[in-house]
Amino acid sequence: MATTSVKRQAKGLPAAKAAASAKVEGNAASGSGPAAAEELISPKKPRIDIEELGGSVPRMPDLPGSHVHVSTYMLMRQVVPFVMHGLPGALNGLDIVHEKELVACPPLPISASDFFGVLRNFKEVWNPQNCMTSVETTSMYEAGGNLLWADMNLGAASRNSEHVINEEPSMQQVIDYAEQFFTLKGGGASPSMQLSLVYPDVLETVVADVNALFSGGAPSAGKTLPSKVNLVAGHPLLFAWYWSAGLALRDNDLVRVRALWQCALSCTIRVRLSSDPKELIVATMQISEKHTGFQKGMTDNFVTWSKKVMKIAEPNASAAKVATALASKSISYAGAKTSKQMILAAQTITANLDETCYADLRMLEREFGRDIMTAGYTKLPKLIQTVKGMLDTQSFTFKFSFVIRMMVVTLRQQLVTPSWLTIATMDNKAVDGKKQLDGSQ
């Protein structure tokens, strides 16, 4: 395997030297909030380049006090350039030798050294020859890689393509994952364990051209590694890594920077060779189901699942036929086998809702959870049916959005509880006023 000859080791943790060398600017100016972040990226280019900033120094954005509905994509368009700008200087301060372009750094090797400062790996790393062999025979390859290879598809054109259908994660979910997975734990553990972070999942990626797997790496080693592979699932976790790195750089927390960099160079990347949109959608549905039961925030809600189903379903096919076809591909939802009823619900949702409706549902889910409306396949179709039956001259979108927003208002004011929003409520059946307030039926 061709690798660079550059050694990656930190000679202790010279915090003072590191802090002086990093020269990372922290708090964002008050006028550089998320609303201005569109200027940081061209929608035609998924990867964020520092050059797009017009020579200005990227800043870590401040998190708004109320961030339930803040755009995670907009914030990450500021966080990623900040991390990519500040990380090389921080690594220099830690005496960690690296390539000029961090994306060219190979994954860490397994090291026999017992020297405390050595960055080390615990898994087999990316092997160009094995990669080629595996891709030629299975169209897939998995090995230890560099987290920075994963392109998060932050560009609008990439997010809205038929290849990748992902619901934007909430910023609260990103923050929760950052605290859960990318915060150093103290108390009783050995020093080496305290300084260790492990990326908790496989980075699921895809490339359409096999040459993309041999377009990067250190100049001295030739083009033997990837420079960019497209992330198709697991965005909240990768966002959480960047958010954690941004906070560590902003605060000059070089111990955490070191741990996060070691984590980045010892993650597992699974890459698929495919240019078939339907094949990729099926893969993302199966990946989503993998997390059912233990990481619900990484799974599709029923609205996203419905969008994917209608992308891969045979046009004009009956619900029963579509359900049978999905079952043959081992596609399920929330652990349940695909049924005719699920497909009928998916057809109703995608045939009636537009982006305005989806945005309102996202607002409801972020504030009050999935169970109210988007977790299952019964409430939402029933609500759509009720709204369509309203005697009003306004458009369906107007009426649907009005109903969802009134739900949000009444829930905020605690006029009703989430348990009140049942099938009976969606069906517009009259219930006693007292029962409406306490949720009983």
Index terms:
6% strand, 17 helices, five-stranded mixed sheet, two-stranded antiparallel sheet, disordered C terminus, disordered N terminus, 2 domains
Describe this structure in words.
The protein has helices spanning 15-22, 72-93, 128-138, 156-159, 171-181, 191-194, 235-250, 254-264, 277-290, 302-312, 319-328, 340-352, 355-368, 379-388, 396-412, 423-426, 433-438; strands at 140-145, 150-151, 203-207, 229-231, 267-273, 332-333, 336-337. The model is unreliable at 1-54, 112-116, 187-194 and 430-441 (pLDDT under 50). The strands form 2 sheets. Strands 1-5-3-4-2 form a 5-stranded mixed β-sheet. Strands 6-7 form a two-stranded antiparallel sheet. It is built from 17 helices and 7 strands. It is globular, with a radius of gyration of 24 Å. Helix 1 packs across helix 2 (72-93), helix 5 (171-181) crosses helix 7 and helix 11 (319-328) packs across helix 12. The chain folds into 2 domains: 15-278, no CATH class; 291-438, no CATH class. A hairpin with a 2-residue loop joins strand 6 and strand 7 (336-337). The longest helix is centred in the first third of the chain and has 22 residues, at 72-93. It is α/β, with parallel strands linked by helices. The protein starts with 14 loop residues before the first helix and ends with a helix.
